Amino acid sequence: MADGVIEGRIVGKKKRSEWIALAVKGENDEIPTPVYVSKNLSFSMDAAFMYAVVRLKGRWETMVQSNNKESNDQSFKFIVDTIELIQCAPDPSVVSVVVTSILKGELSARTLLPFGRHKEEDITQMQEMIQQFNSNPKRKAIIATIVRGLEGRENRLPRQCLPHTKRHDLQVLQAVEQQIDLLPIKRSLIKNENRPDKSRPLNVPDDDDTLMSARGPLTRKAYLLNKKHPQVQWMVDRIKLLPPVKHIVDVGGGRGDLAIALAEAFPCVVVTVVDKNDSSIQAGRDFACNDRVHFVHANFQDFVRDSSRFVQSSLPMVDMVVALHACGDLADLAMTYAKERAVPFVICPCCYTKHYISHFIPPYILNQQQTQSKKVTLSEEQGHEAAATTPEFTVVGRLAELNERPDISRRAARAINSMRLHCMTDYPEVHLEEYDSSCSTRNLVMVGIR
After folding, report:
1. Largest CB tally within 10 Å, which of 94, 108, 330, 422?
2. Which CATH class is domain 167-449?
């Protein structure tokens, strides 16, 4: 009996009553080596799939080949003690299982790399792909990319290609740009915008550096400190340049990251956070510990219709509206709310293709229809659906969400936000500004001053 190590690809597999028999063929072997794995052996079955590459540690034992008791013919069999996965099998279902094991910390990302691609940059690229697996709706595409690499159909991990942009879509964008008065995008008015000040409060989990964020491959802590905090800090510093106020409404403020920072920066200001997500509102209440931050669980449309139902009568009148990443037509409704109350606003929109609010047509769409002498004959019930399907705005909104083409995305977002600000005719001064795009590509901010 002697110890040994066998490394190779599994090319055969049979299950016996007490054993799993594997045929493992090394890179230079002409014929595979039979090995035997006890079913009582505790090991990761993620390794024992057909065509996976494994490293087996075990011992050689003698076995009699003939049933003749007088025969001295002997051979050896390899009994496996431990099994290690070196390369995953190129099968989509197996890749999915292995990715899950990697996210749990049970396996290394190296197992999904083709042979010869174990350089540091390749491992980093694979880790980034794996971290996107749970949050990416195109996980099948990620698995297909990994399978192609494992099968050797590509010499390297394929890079993401820029998506094709239809010529017609670009022509629509250009036509919209020519029809409107595009506002300039002003450089940030904030000095030392990127200063590494992390003192303002955010709902950061101090005890868990592994909790993943829903916002891509970062942990929640890393996302809050490196992405969310700079945006909150910019918004606070921008609001400091406006005339003083007493009561701010934070539209879609969620856990209250911006609201809490505003309350800390302005000791005499009350902030009301309005959000329809109950879990976010509850998390904000648990974290805030500030009696000047009020959380309202409500659809903002209901809040606009009768804010007295949600705001204490003892509080000052609302004299500013803010929003950090107000989705779709929520940004339009927030601006409408500010205009009706003749108060300043600082609103950073996102999700240009989303339409959440029923029976509400964004003012810039109505304005453009009237400018083009298109008679609006829609009922109130039809208005929301029509706004969502107006061809030119559907195209421009989709281009504004084109992450892989930031130049086109910025042009489309500028066009939409310019049209939005042109509707704020009662405001003596409106601006379109932006902050550092490394924090977020949705970095255009609409500012209205009264």
Report:
1. 330
2. alpha beta
Q: In a 3-state reduction of DSSP, which class is residue 434?
A: strand
Rounded Cα gap, residues 216 and 228, in angstroms: 13
Q: How many whole angstroms separate alpha carbon 19 and alpha carbon 37? A: 5
For 266-297, give one letter per residue: b (16+ CB within 10 A) or e: beebbbbbbbbeeebbebbbebbeeebbbbbb
User: pLDDT value at position 154?
Assistant: 59
Considering only CA atoms, give the Rg of the chain: 30
Q: What is the pLDDT of residue 259?
A: 94
Confidence check: pLDDT of 321 > 80: yes
Q: Which residues of 353-365 are buried (b: 16+ CB within 10 A; e: fewer)?
A: eebbbeebbbbbb
Q: At 8, which helix (H) or strand (E)?
A: strand 2-15
Rounded to whole angstroms, the Cα distance separating 89 from 102 reads 15
Contact 25, 97 (CB under 8 A): no
First to last CA, the chain: 89
| Domain extents in the chain | 2-87, 92-150, 167-449
**CATH class for the region spanning 2-87:** mainly beta
- Arithmetic mean of pLDDT over the chain: 81
